[in-house]
């Protein structure tokens, strides 16, 4: 992609590299299922010209997520793959929208994806307010101080009181809010919005909502459009908004303390343009990234990246895999050689890819903030750092202790070796965690949600011809163990050998039968740290 050098109005052009990086906006949408994430994604892509018609984003439409639906989607890999990241241009900006799985059983994937974004859009159903999954995902964003823009969706339906919704965000998330626009009427009477700052009005008509249709109208004129609206009530409410709501503060937003709020309707494409403009204007360009040895700045000339997601079997005939890498600094050019820090090996990036709504194409150039797909046959793993040579590892791509542990039962013992290989590959892809007990007993698999076990079983069957079932394990919890003192550690591992296993990377975990067993062991092993989150290196 060769693009003209531009910056935000008034910004100084420092270098072509800096200007390219500064116009990147890499974000995700967080929401509870059904709030409208898919619909909003479609509309955002429409603005970006990435798709011609809304409705093409995914086969997710009917996914209301029964098991069989999910399995079907998993099989339609072409579809789920193109939605992992969607790159589009709008105005002066390049947007990378990272998609996250809808079902909470795949939340680990979502958490890892959130390590690769610089901001997030929180979509809230105006009739429901903050729901469980929104809250959880918000907490993950907060851990990294990711700035959040809020889109209160479905204003064309019956909604809760807007003040009430803002109040709920402030109280339950401890997040300040600033409404950017304010709804006039709700549900059937939803007529449009007023911009709080300028007083400009947008009317809900046809394809309105797109930037440019801001009108100068008085509240009386707006109210006159709809006989069921009460002009003086609207005036009073708007007065209150102006008096009571905090002004927008860019710094507080970028630090993750304050969220600009947009009222709109994704379905009616209303308010979506404002949201996209705000992402361009307010959301931060690629942030600095923490590595073990130092902090890496986006505008450093040398390329660095980390892998946060692996997607396998884009083409089932060749067991190929795409590793999704977030560029943290510099510029990637096609054909460049990078160092994979974990192995010390050099990898040639001969066919890095960009993803659009429906297509992918070879990326000749990519910049910090961009996400590129790197085809490979299993050599690249989640958490891998790639650099132009410098030895450093980005920190913070997490592994989470599984909530469910199962022993794999393989009726055909002749296939044990194949199973081992298959589990290794699927674990590298992040589909499942595998733990190999020190005492030589069969491997355990660990997942966050039961749906993952179904996907695993089907994939073992379809891709490896392995028929497996799950046995309940005597263990229910796994914790990564470590100690500052190698001797203490060795003693612990030796005296608990039947409860210690190695994970994919050879890092030891303690397997506990239950919470009591874990607490009991922990109390009696003062020099040992038990962790339920591991940073993947
Ligand atoms: P997701 O589960 O968050 O991806 O939600 P979807 O985008 O699939 O939307 C869930 C349902 O809400 C679908 O039936 C959408 O058509 C509907 N929907 C989404 N946005 C709006 C909106 O702004 N207004 C109305 N009335 N319905 C909406």
TrEMBL record:
Give the GO molecular function terms.
GTP binding; GTPase activity; guanosine tetraphosphate binding; translation release factor activity, codon nonspecific; translation release factor activity, codon specific
| Its job | Increases the formation of ribosomal termination complexes and stimulates activities of RF-1 and RF-2. It binds guanine nucleotides and has strong preference for UGA stop codons. It may interact directly with the ribosome. The stimulation of RF-1 and RF-2 is significantly reduced by GTP and GDP, but not by GMP.
* SUPFAM superfamilies, per database record: EF-G C-terminal domain-like, P-loop containing nucleoside triphosphate hydrolases, Translation proteins
> Which Gene3D superfamilies does this entry report, sorted A to Z?
P-loop containing nucleotide triphosphate hydrolases, Peptide chain release factor 3, domain III, Translation factors
Q: What UniProt keywords are attached to this protein's entry?
A: Cytoplasm, GTP-binding, Nucleotide-binding, Protein biosynthesis
* A single cellular component GO annotation: cytosol
Question: Where is this protein found?
Answer: Cytoplasm
Keyword Disulfide bond assigned to the entry: answer is no
NCBIfam families named among the record's database cross-references: prfC (TIGR00503), PRK00741.1 (NF001964), small_GTP (TIGR00231)
UniProt GO BP: regulation of translational termination
Checking CDD domains in the record gives: RF3, RF3_III
Q: Which residues bind GTP?
A: 31-38, 99-103, 153-156
The record's PROSITE patterns line, in alphabetical order, gives: G_TR_1, G_TR_2
Reply yes or no: does the keyword GTP-binding apply: yes
Note the PANTHER family from the entry.
PEPTIDE CHAIN RELEASE FACTOR RF3
Protein family: Belongs to the TRAFAC class translation factor GTPase superfamily. Classic translation factor GTPase family. PrfC subfamily.
Q: What is this protein called?
A: Peptide chain release factor 3
Q: Which gene encodes it?
A: prfC
């Amino acid at each position: 992609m060769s693009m003209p050098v531009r910056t935000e109005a008034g910004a100084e052009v420092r270098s072509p590299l800096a200007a390219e990086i500064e116009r990147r906006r890499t974000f995700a949408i967080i929401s509870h299922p059904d709030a409208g994430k898919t619909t909003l994604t479609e509309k955002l892509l429409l603005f970006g010209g990435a798709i011609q018609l809304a409705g093409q984003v995914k086969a997710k439409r009917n996914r209301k997520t029964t098991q069989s639906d999910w399995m079907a989607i998993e099989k339609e890999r072409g579809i789920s793959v193109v939605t992992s990241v969607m790159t589009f241009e709008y105005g002066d900006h390049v947007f990378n929208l990272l998609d996250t799985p809808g079902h909470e059983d795949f939340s680990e994937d979502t958490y890892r994806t959130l390590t690769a974004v610089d901001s997030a859009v929180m979509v809230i159903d105006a009739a429901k307010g903050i729901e469980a999954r929104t809250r959880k995902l918000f907490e993950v964003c907060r851990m990294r101080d990711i700035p959040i823009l809020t889109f209160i969706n479905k204003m064309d339906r019956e909604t809760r009181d807007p003040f009430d919704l803002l109040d709920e965000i402030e109280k339950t998330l401890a997040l300040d809010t600033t409404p950017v626009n304010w709804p006039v009427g709700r549900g059937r009477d939803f007529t449009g919005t007023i911009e709080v700052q300028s007083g400009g009005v947008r009317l809900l008509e046809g394809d309105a909502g797109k930037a440019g249709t801001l009108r100068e109208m008085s509240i009386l004129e707006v109210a006159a459009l709809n006989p069921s609206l009460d002009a003086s009530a609207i005036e009073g409410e708007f007065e209150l908004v102006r008096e009571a709501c905090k002004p927008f503060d860019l710094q507080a937003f970028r630090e993750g303390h304050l969220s600009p709020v947009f009222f709109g309707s994704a379905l009616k494409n209303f308010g979506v343009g404002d949201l996209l403009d705000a992402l361009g204007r307010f959301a931060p360009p690629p942030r600095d990234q923490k590595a073990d040895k130092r902090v890496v700045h986006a505008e450093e000339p040398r390329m660095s990246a980390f892998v946060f997601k692996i997607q396998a079997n884009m083409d089932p005939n060749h067991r190929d895999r795409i590793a999704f890498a977030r560029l943290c600094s510099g510029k990637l050019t096609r054909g460049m050689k990078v160092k994979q820090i974990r192995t010390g090996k050099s990898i040639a990036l001969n066919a890095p890819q960009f993803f659009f709504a429906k297509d992918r194409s070879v990326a000749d150039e990519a910049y910090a903030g961009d996400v590129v797909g790197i085809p490979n046959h299993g050599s690249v793993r989640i958490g891998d750092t790639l650099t132009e040579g410098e030895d450093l590892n980005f920190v913070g791509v997490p592994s989470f202790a599984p909530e469910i542990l199962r022993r794999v039962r393989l009726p055909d013992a002749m296939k044990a070796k194949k199973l081992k290989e298959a589990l290794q590959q699927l674990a590298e892809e992040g589909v499942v965690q595998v733990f190999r007990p020190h005492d030589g007993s069969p491997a355990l698999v660990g997942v966050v949600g039961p749906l993952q076990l179904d996907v695993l079983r089907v994939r073992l069957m379809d891709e490896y011809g392995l028929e497996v079932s799950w046995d309940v394990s005597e263990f229910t919890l796994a914790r990564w163990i470590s100690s500052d003192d190698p001797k203490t550690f060795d003693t612990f591992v030796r005296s608990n050998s039947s409860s210690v296993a190695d994970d994919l990377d050879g890092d030891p975990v303690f397997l506990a039968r239950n919470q009591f067993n874990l607490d009991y062991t922990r109390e009696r092993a003062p020099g040992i740290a038990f962790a339920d989150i591991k940073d993947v290196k």
